[in-house]
Design goal:
The complex is a heterodimer of chains A (515) and B (404). With 515 residues, chain A is α+β, with helices and mostly antiparallel strands. Chain A has helices at 2-6, 16-26, 59-71, 75-81, 86-94, 106-114, 161-171, 203-214, 224-231, 248-256, 291-320, 328-338, 345-365, 371-388, 394-407, 413-451, and strands spanning 33-40, 43-53, 100-103, 117-122, 128-132, 177-184, 190-197, 243-245, 260-264, 270-273, 453-454, 457-458. Chain A is built from 16 helices and twelve strands. In chain A, helix 7 (161-171) crosses helix 10. Chain A starts with a helix and ends in a 57-residue tail after the last strand. Chain B is 35% helix and 29% strand. The A-B interface holds A 319-321, 323-324, 328-329, 331-341, 344-345, 387-388, 390, 394, 428-429, 431-434, 437 and B 14-15, 18-19, 21-26, 28, 30, 32, 50, 52-53, 55-58, 94, 96-97, 99, 124, 126, 151, 154.
Chain lengths: 515, 404
C-alpha cells in the first residue's frame, strides 16, 4: 500500500455513476466484476450501488448481510441519528458484516475489491464502504501431504492465509501471538503474514525479518519459496537457512522456541527463521513420542544423512583405490560381481544415481494414473535387468538403493535435497582422489557450514560456536524428557531463555507411599 | 566470472592430478597365498590367485572349477620375480589380501633375509600374513585344495587360527610375530610347517572334492626353528606343545593323561585346559650357569575320566590334578630337550634374563645359544579342575551300582 500511496491517488467522485464508470474502466470491463445499482424505498432520492468481484466473495453473506439490510432499510430514522450522513448511517446501523471500513480513493477501492471485499457506494458521497465478505471456494483442511506423523495432530495448512493463521491461533491461545500482514508483489498483492510470540522472540531478529521483507520488490509472490530466496542470508549455498513446513504444530513449536514464522497467502508452506543445521533433523514426532525412541530415531536420522551423502562415494573410493581396506571375503565377492562390468566404478555409480534421480523426478511429475508403470520399469527393468545384463554390479545397486532410502528418512525435504546434490560432488571427488578426495570435500563442507548464518544466528550452533549456556544439548543430538528441556533450543539472545524453571521432574506420588 | 574461473582451475587440477593410482576390482589378481622356493640358484615365487567368479559370481554354476590358479615366476630377488608375473598374467598381482606365506625347507635353510626386507620395506606387503614352512616344495602346498573352504590360502589361515585358540600346539606366526622374534632379544623363532598327509596324491583338481573323502589333505606338522634368518631344525608336534607351555602360549588345549603312576601306555583320560599362565624366573647358579624356574598355573575342565574313584570327594580330585600336572611337566621336559638340542631359544628365556638381569645379559648375549643349551630348567605346575562334568563317578561305577 505504501508504494501506491506514493503515486497520485484519485479521489472518489461524489457522483455514483462516475465512480462506477471508473471502476469498470479500471477492471477493463471484466465479466466477473459485478456492479449492482439500486434504489431503496426508504431513500428514493439517492441511488446506491454495491460492487464486488464474483467468485472470491461469499455470495450468501452479501445477500444476507449487505443486500437485504440495504434494500429494507429505513434510512431517514437512522440518518437523523447519525447527523444526516448516509454512509455513516449505513456503516453503523445497517450493514451487518463484522469488518466495515470507509475509504475515499479509487485505488483503495480497487485494491479492496481485488482482495475479495464488497464495495458499497451511495450517490452524493465522495467515499465508499468496504465490507469483509471474503469467501469463494477453498480447499478443506486435510492431512499434511509432506510431513506425516503417526502420533500428533493430523491437519495441515491450506492455501488460505486466514485459515492458516486461525489454525495457529487455535494452538497458541494467547494475545502474545502477534500477526503482522504485509502486501508483497506489485501485481499479486499477496498477503504475507509475520507471526511471532511477543516477549519470547528476539526483537533484533524480528526487525531484521521486517527489513528484509520490506526490501522485496517483485511483481508476484506465488509461493513462500519466492520469499525464502529473497530473505535468506546466503544464496550460494546448498544448505537451506530457513525451515519450511505445512504443519501448524511445527509452526507453533517454532514460535514457542522464539522463531519468527512467515506465511504467504496461496500456499500451505510456512517459513520459519532463524534456524540451524540441527533443526532440520527434528521431526515434530520427536516431541510427541517417548524421549528414548525419539533419541534413537534422531540418531538414525543423523547417520542416514551422512550415509546418503557419503555411501556411494565411499563405495567408489574403496573399490577403486583402497581395496586393502575391505575384508578379504567381501573383496572377493565384490570382485566377482564386477567381473565383466564394462564401466569403471565411478561411471557405474553415476549411471545408477542418475537413473534413480530420473525415476524419482518422473515419479513426482507424471500423472497419478501411470504410477504403477513407473515402479515396474524402475524396479524390474532398470534394477534387476541391469545387473543380469552385466551393466552394473549388484553391489552398486544395493548401495544406490540404500542411499536413496536413507535420503527419505530426513524430515525436512530441502535438507534431503542438499545431501543428494552433495552426493554427486563427493562421488566425483572419490572417483578422482579416493578417500583423500572425500576427506577434503568433507573438510570443505564443514568449513562452509560453520560460515553460514541464518538471520545472524550461526548455522552450526550450538556445536560451533559452542553453547553460551549449559543445557542446550538436551535437544540437539538426543532428546531428553520434556521436563529436562529447560532452555529454548537456539543460542539466541533470548530475553527469557528458559522454558521452565528447573530441569527437575515433578515428583510422582506412589499409591503405596500413602499411609 | 571469478567463481567460474576458479571452478575451472579446480576441475583441471582434479583431472590432471586425479585418478593416477586408480585400479578397478576386475583389474587386480587377488593373491591369497604365496609360496617361496629356492630352486636352481634362484628364488621361485608361486602365487595362488583367486578367481572371484568361481566363488560367488553370477556364473551359472560356481564350484565346478577350482577357485584359485597357481603359477610361479623366478628371479634373483623377490621383486624382480614378482614383476615378471605381468608377463604371464592379465592382471596386476595384489598382495594386500595375501593370507599365508609358505616357505620351503630349501629356501628357509638358504636364509630369509631378503624376504624380511620385502615385508619391512613395502606398504602392500602386509605383516598380518601367517608364515609357514614346508618340508617339500612350497608350490605344491599352494596347489592343494582344501575341503570346506573355497580358497586354500584362507583355509590354511583359518586352520592355524583354529589351532591356536582350540589346541595351542602351534601358534599363529604372522610375519609381524616372526619379525618381532627375529629382531628381538634371542633372534630365534618357531614357525609351524605344513605337509600333505595321506596318500600324498595331489589335491589339485576341483572335481576331487566331489567325493566325501579326500585321499590326502594339508595338515599342520612339525615346528621349524629359525635362528637368525635360517632354518636350524625341526621339532615334533608333541615337543611343540611343550614349547608352548614353557613360553606361555597355551590358550586352550586338551591334555591326555593317565592316573596310573609311572605308566607310559594308554592315556585314557583327558582334561581341557581353559586358561593357563606360565611364569619364568631366571636364577644364576653358583657355577655361573643359569637355571630357569618355570611355573605353570592352569585351570581346566575334566572331559574324559576312566580311572574310577569317586570324584565327588576332594581328595580324589586332587589325585587327578597331580596326574595332570605330571603330564604337563613331562611335555615341557620334552619340549625343552628338543629346543636345547637345536640351541634355538624360542622360549623367551633370553628375554626373561635380559629383563631381570640386564647387566649379566650384556656379558653373555654373544654366546647365548651355547649358554642356552647348557641351562637347566625346573618346572612346577599347578592345575585346578573347575568342574568334573555332569557325571560324578563315571560309567563303570554307575554300572556296578546298578548291578548291586
Amino acid at each position: 500500500m505504501n508504494k501506491q500511496d506514493a503515486k497520485a491517488l484519485t479521489k472518489l467522485s461524489p457522483s455514483l455513476h462516475a465512480n462506477v464508470q471508473a471502476i469498470r474502466t479500471r477492471f477493463g470491463g471484466s465479466s466477473d466484476l459485478i456492479v449492482r445499482l439500486f434504489r431503496s424505498d426508504a431513500a428514493p432520492d439517492r441511488e446506491l450501488a454495491i460492487a464486488y468481484v464474483d467468485g472470491i466473495v461469499n455470495a450468501d453473506t452479501i445477500n444476507e448481510s449487505v443486500m437485504e439490510p440495504l434494500m429494507s432499510l429505513r434510512l431517514p430514522e437512522y440518518m437523523q441519528r447519525r447527523g444526516g450522513k448516509l454512509l455513516d448511517a449505513l456503516r453503523s446501523c445497517v450493514v451487518s458484516v463484522g469488518a466495515v471500513k470507509e475509504i475515499s480513493t479509487l485505488e483503495e477501492a480497487l485494491q479492496y475489491m481485488a482482495d475479495g471485499l464488497c464495495l458499497i457506494m451511495a450517490d452524493g458521497a465522495a467515499s465508499a464502504l468496504t465490507a469483509e465478505v471474503c469467501g469463494g471456494n477453498q480447499r478443506a483442511v486435510t492431512i499434511p501431504q509432506t510431513q506425516t506423523v503417526i502420533r500428533g495432530p493430523q491437519y495441515g495448512f491450506v492455501e488460505d492465509i486466514r485459515t492458516n493463521i486461525s489454525l495457529i491461533r487455535r494452538i497458541i491461545r494467547s494475545p502474545n501471538l502477534h500477526v503482522q500482514i504485509h502486501k508483497i508483489g506489485k501485481q499479486t498483492n499477496s498477503n504475507v503474514a509475520v507471526l511471532y510470540l511477543h516477549g519470547i522472540v528476539d526483537e533484533g531478529i524480528l526487525k531484521e525479518v521486517y527489513r528484509r521483507l520490506a526490501d522485496i520488490d517483485i511483481d508476484g509472490v506465488l509461493e513462500s519459496g519466492y520469499i525464502e530466496e529473497f530473505i535468506q542470508d546466503e544464496t550460494f549455498t546448498l544448505f537451506p537457512t530457513l525451515l519450511n513446513t505445512e504443519r501448524p504444530d511445527t509452526v507453533a513449536a517454532a514460535l514457542l522456541e522464539g522463531r519468527v514464522a512467515v506465511m504467504v497467502d496461496g500456499t500451505p508452506i510456512a517459513l520459519m527463521a532463524p534456524t540451524n543445521f540441527f533443526t532440520f533433523f527434528q521431526s515434530p514426532e520427536d516431541f510427541y513420542q517417548r524421549y528414548d525412541i525419539a533419541t534413537f530415531v534422531r540418531i538414525i536420522r543423523y547417520v542416514s544423512f551422512v550415509l546418503s551423502m557419503l555411501l556411494p562415494a565411499l563405495y567408489i573410493a574403496v573399490t577403486t583405490y583402497h581395496q586393502e581396506m575391505l575384508p578379504t571375503t567381501l573383496l572377493i565377492s565384490l570382485a566377482a560381481q564386477r567381473e565383466g562390468i564394462p564401466f569403471p566404478g565411478l561411471i557405474e555409480a553415476l549411471l545408477m544415481e542418475m537413473t534413480f534421480e530420473v525415476l524419482r523426478e518422473a515419479g513426482l511429475r507424471m500423472p497419478r494414473a501411470i504410477g504403477p508403470a513407473i515402479s515396474i520399469v524402475g524396479a524390474l527393468v532398470l534394477g534387476q535387468s541391469a545387473v543380469q545384463a552385466g551393466i552394473v554390479s549388484a553391489g552398486m545397486v544395493i548401495v544406490v538403493s540404500f542411499t536413496a532410502i536413507s535420503n527419505f528418512v530426513m524430515p525436512e525435504l530441502n535438507m534431503a535435497a542438499t545431501s543428494r546434490i552433495i552426493r554427486f560432488a563427493l562421488m566425483l571427488m572419490a572417483g578422482m582422489l579416493g578417500f583423500f578426495g572425500i576427506f577434503i570435500s568433507v573438510l570443505f563442507l564443514i568449513v562452509h557450514l560453520t560460515s553460514l548464518r541464518s538471520f545472524g544466528v550461526p548455522y552450526m550452533s550450538p556445536l560451533a560456536p559452542g553453547p553460551k549456556m549449559q543445557g542446550v544439548w538436551r535437544d540437539v543430538f538426543v532428546r531428553l524428557p520434556w521436563w529436562a528441556i529447560v532452555l529454548r533450543p537456539m543460542d539466541l539472545n533470548l530475553r527469557n531463555p528458559k522454558r521452565r524453571p528447573s530441569g527437575r521432574k515433578p515428583p510422582a506420588q506412589r499409591h503405596s507411599d500413602k499411609p | 566470472m571469478r567463481i567460474g574461473k576458479l571452478f575451472m582451475l579446480m576441475l583441471s587440477i582434479l583431472l590432471v592430478s586425479g585418478c593416477w593410482n586408480r585400479v578397478e576390482l576386475n583389474d587386480i589378481g587377488i593373491v591369497s597365498a604365496t609360496g617361496i622356493d629356492w630352486k636352481d640358484g634362484k628364488w621361485q615365487l608361486s602365487y595362488q590367485v583367486v578367481i572371484p567368479q568361481s566363488i560367488s559370481g553370477q556364473s551359472p554354476s560356481p564350484g565346478t572349477a577350482a577357485a584359485v590358479n597357481v603359477f610361479s615366476t623366478s628371479g634373483d630377488n623377490f621383486q624382480s620375480a614378482i614383476s615378471k608375473a605381468s608377463q604371464e598374467t592379465s592382471r596386476r598381482l595384489y598382495f594386500a589380501h595375501n593370507q599365508v606365506v609358505i616357505i620351503s625347507q630349501a629356501a628357509a635353510r638358504k636364509g630369509l633375509e631378503q624376504l624380511f626386507d620385502v615385508y619391512l620395506r613395502n606398504a602392500d606387503a602386509r605383516e598380518t600374513v601367517s608364515v609357514f614352512l614346508s618340508k617339500g616344495s612350497a608350490r605344491h602346498m599352494l596347489e592343494q585344495l582344501i575341503p570346506l573352504e573355497k580358497i586354500p590360502g584362507t583355509a590354511i589361515q583359518r586352520m592355524i587360527a583354529n589351532e591356536e585358540i582350540n589346541s595351542s600346539v602351534f601358534r599363529q606366526m604372522t610375519m609381524h610375530e616372526v619379525l618381532k622374534d627375529l629382531l628381538g632379544t634371542t633372534q630365534a623363532a618357531g614357525i609351524p610347517s605344513l605337509s600333505v598327509g595321506g596318500t600324498n596324491e595331489s589335491m589339485d583338481r576341483a572335481d576331487k572334492l566331489a567325493k566325501t573323502n579326500t585321499p590326502s589333505k594339508v595338515r599342520l606338522n612339525d615346528l621349524g626353528l629359525i635362528q637368525k634368518d635360517k632354518l636350524v631344525g625341526w621339532i615334533t608336534r608333541t615337543e611343540s606343545r611343550g614349547v608352548m607351555w614353557l613360553a606361555d602360549y597355551i590358550k586352550r588345549t586338551t591334555t591326555a593323561f593317565t592316573c596310573r603312576q609311572g605308566d607310559n601306555g594308554l592315556k585314557e583320560s583327558a582334561v581341557q585346559i581353559i586358561s593357563s599362565k606360565t611364569k619364568q624366573r631366571p636364577e644364576q647358579q653358583p657355577g655361573g650357569e643359569w637355571m630357569m624356574h618355570v611355573e605353570v598355573t592352569a585351570e581346566g575342565t575334566l572331559l574324559e575320566y576312566n580311572c574310577g574313584g569317586d570324584l565327588s570327594k576332594p581328595p580324589e580330585v586332587d589325585k587327578v590334578e597331580r596326574a595332570i600336572e605330571e603330564e604337563i611337566k613331562r611335555e615341557m621336559e620334552m619340549g625343552w630337550q628338543a629346543v636345547r638340542k637345536h640351541k634355538a631359544d624360542v622360549l623367551g628365556f633370553g628375554g626373561s634374563i635380559r629383563q631381570k638381569y640386564p647387566k649379566a645379559w650384556r656379558g653373555m648375549k654373544d654366546d647365548w645359544p651355547e649358554r642356552f643349551s647348557r641351562m637347566e630348567v625346573k618346572t612346577t605346575v599347578h592345575v585346578k579342575i573347575n568342574t568334573t562334568g555332569m557325571s560324578g563317578s563315571g560309567f563303570k561305577k554307575m554300572q556296578e551300582k546298578a548291578r548291586s
